Automatic annotation (TrEMBL):
This is Transcriptional regulator. Keywords: Transcription, Transcription regulation. SMART domains: HTH_ARAC (SM00342). Gene3D superfamilies: Homeodomain-like. The keyword Ubl conjugation does not apply. It comes from Litorihabitans aurantiacus. One of its GO terms (molecular function) is sequence-specific DNA binding. The keyword Transcription applies. InterPro entries: Homeodomain-like_sf, HTH_AraC, Tscrpt_reg_HTH_AraC_N. Residues 190-288 form the HTH araC/xylS-type domain.
Length: 296
């Protein structure tokens, strides 16, 4: 990675450390700041359309369907739609912490900026992770400086948002970003996700999901693949497993109760999928995570 980019990310990391306890201030800029002091087990997280950066440390993202990707400050991730991710922190940085930044993408801004640029050729299916550049790191750093100057944010944040989008459109992830903006106009994927969220335990099929989203099964499959890398049914499985884990840890449900809540008809099927995703049987995993919560 460019030494200038590395230095810029280090300065961003210091600012995140300073503001990690002020999430509301960060949220006004479309930012979600993250910090952990130890490696973590596999976790289920859901991001809206966003740019994800690792400032210090390394993480592992993905699963058997998407493939596993290890990455750190030298890479970035674009999630073009509300995407459930399986990830874990592999290691912390030299100062003993793992720091991350998520910045919410606005499809309208992507369309606006892209309209002013010449259409560039690129790989229609880029790698899952983008390559960090100094220009992108610098723009993100300047956005983070507004955490120290909230009175200037109303003027400067919209300008910096457009610059960050510009830098992304100049990167190897431009095709993924453009595809997300185009699909936002006729968002059948978003409509399908919303319907599944509202009735997670329903006996969904590709055909019924497509019908609920007002499209054909073939179109739904294609758009899900383009935006998430998953089929609709794999996406649904990930949602169900994530909600089941939350129900066991937060609501205190047993593995059997959680599996029924999210729509699994077979306890053995649920256990097999859960273990493949999180590395432990659901009952043992729920017990261990509840103990971690009680211990703080």
């Amino acid at each position: 990675m460019d030494t200038r980019a590395a230095a810029s990310l280090e300065r961003s990391a210091e600012r995140v450390r300073h503001h990690i306890d002020h999430p509301h201030r960060a949220a006004k800029l479309g930012l979600l700041l993250g910090r952990t002091l130890t490696p973590t087990p596999m976790l289920f997280v859901r991001y809206p359309p966003s740019l994800s950066l690792v400032l210090t440390g390394r993480k592992l993202s993905g699963d058997d369907e998407l493939g596993h990707q290890e990455w750190g400050p030298d890479r970035f991730l674009i999630t073009p739609v509300d995407l459930p991710l399986i990830a874990r922190v592999l290691e912390v940085g030299q100062q003993g912490d793992f720091l991350s930044v998520n910045w919410r993408l606005d499809p309208a801004v992507v369309v606006e900026v892209a309209a002013q640029l010449p259409r560039q050729r690129g790989d229609d299916q880029p790698a899952r992770l983008g390559t960090m550049t100094y220009e992108l790191a610098d723009a993100v750093e300047r956005l983070l400086t507004l955490l120290d100057a909230p009175q200037e944010a109303a003027v400067l944040a919209p300008l910096l948002s457009r610059e960050i989008v510009l830098r992304l459109l100049q990167s190897d992830q431009a095709p993924r970003l453009l595809a997300a903006a185009e699909h936002a106009r006729a968002d059948v994927v978003g409509a399908a996700i919303a319907r599944m969220d509202q009735a997670l335990a329903d006996p969904w099929t590709v055909e019924s999901i497509a019908s609920a989203a007002g499209t054909s099964p073939a179109t739904l499959r294609r758009r899900f693949r383009e935006l998430t890398g998953l089929t609709p049914m794999h996406y649904l499985k990930r949602l169900r497993l994530g909600e089941a884990r939350r129900a066991m840890v937060v609501d205190g449900l047993s593995a059997a109760q959680a599996s029924v809540r999210v729509g699994y008809l077979s306890a053995s099927h649920f256990s097999r999928d859960y273990r493949a995703t999180y590395g432990r049987p659901p009952g043992a995993d729920g017990t261990a995570l509840r103990a971690q919560l009680r211990a703080g």
